[in-house]
Amino acid sequence: MARIILGNTYHLYLRPGDERISRLGGLHRFMNWGRPILTDSGGFQVFSLARINRIEENGVQFQSHIDGSRHLITPESAVRIQKNLGSDIMMCFDECTPYPVSQEYASESVLRTIRWAARCREENPGGTQALFGIVQGSVFRELREMCLERLVEIGFEGFAIGSLSVGESKAEMLDVMRWLAPKLPENRPRYVMGVGTPEDLVEGVRAGVDMFDCVMPTRNARNGMLFTSRGPLQIKNSAHSEDPRPVDPECGCYTCRSYSRAYLRHLYIARELLSYRLNTIHNIHFYLDLMRQMREAIGKGSFEQWRSAYYSRQSMPEAEGPELETASAPDPR
């Protein structure tokens, strides 16, 4: 089971509203989740989903992607919204630097993010809700380093790397993560936002990252792409139309224990809602189990050996034959 889940300030502010959630006892009670919750500040969604009218020193004026209504989010209001939500970890409101971007604009953006981070810290100087700072600077090392230094001076309970996987190449993304992650304070959680593929997680953990978030497991599941121990699998392909095997014989999730590839393909082609749920159960289980394996390997001091074995399995052709366990049909009762 997941130890922590993420809620988004932008979406919850617009619908159903943070004040309503607060009146109903906070996000934990609202969604009946008794474990930690992290809330993103909504900075990425403001810049990626909403129609921005103006970025100014006070904050960002934007129009909702839902109904076109106009709103203003400031660093202070982003923190207040997250306080209403009652999350355990809050994120500073930052400017998600676009890509490609000039170094001149990236510099202005970083300085704005630093000023906003200081205002977020003033709005939440301490208490039961931790506040994380977000390191910006696009692909420019000197800007990333400057931003990190200033955020450390302000002081936060954790530090995140933002604006990755926003259009830059995979090589550039990995370069920033591998170079920057080890520079984040060792005595604070290290968090890479919006990343990524299973391989991205492996490389992030190798660089010293503790936390990740990404829509990829659920979004790809809805699009019929499933992660397996041998690499990604497109369940919609006709090759699976009469395949009695589970998605991944090495996976112990409910989907793999209960259903065949043929049935999952049928659900997807028929656009049954159950398709999205079963695919999502598998992909989330795959990610959680991947992180479990890495934690165990680190604890045993064998991470590099585990990493080599993981990449070897991913590059192996998929085995065929009766030795693979066949998924049993669900009990009709």
Write up what this structure looks like.
With 333 residues, the protein is of the alpha/beta class. It folds into 2 domains: 5-20 and 36-214, TIM Barrel; 224-315, no CATH class. The protein is built from 14 helices and 12 strands. It has helices at residues 9-14, 18-23, 26-30, 43-48, 75-85, 103-123, 141-154, 170-180, 198-207, 216-222, 254-258, 261-269, 273-300, 303-315; strands at 5-8, 37-40, 51-55, 60-63, 70-73, 89-91, 130-135, 158-161, 190-193, 211-213, 225-226, 233-234. The strands form 3 sheets. It has a 7-stranded parallel β-sheet. A 3-stranded antiparallel β-sheet has the order 3-4-5. It is globular, with a radius of gyration of 21 Å. Mean pLDDT is 93; it is low at 319-333.
